[in-house]
Fold:
Amino acid sequence: MSDELSDELSGELSDESADESADKSVDESKAESARAAVTPAISLDVVPRLHRHFRFQWEPAQDAHVLLYPEGMIKLNGSAGEILACVDGEQSVAAIIAELQQKFPEAGDLADDVKQFLAVAHDKRWIEL
Structure:
């Protein structure tokens, strides 16, 4: 293959990749905007509680916290488990954030992350606000 043809094909491929990347970026931006529109703003004074169809527990076989429900189980990552462990139907979002800040001072400000997770958990109907 000649160097000119090789350079031309490489240029076309990189242009296509750039176009695909730009399209993907626009699609991801639209999806993020749609999630933000659906996700409620979480107030600091609201008191979240688990939805009645879910049970939160540590599952030794999974080595993780899980949410059990009649049709199955959701394995939670460490952060999600720590947050949901504080959701007891008695503490406000502000109190949950304060508890987690005290437990993990090296993590910095957790308020936005906790509120974002609780919004997602609410969207998935794991919790009620």
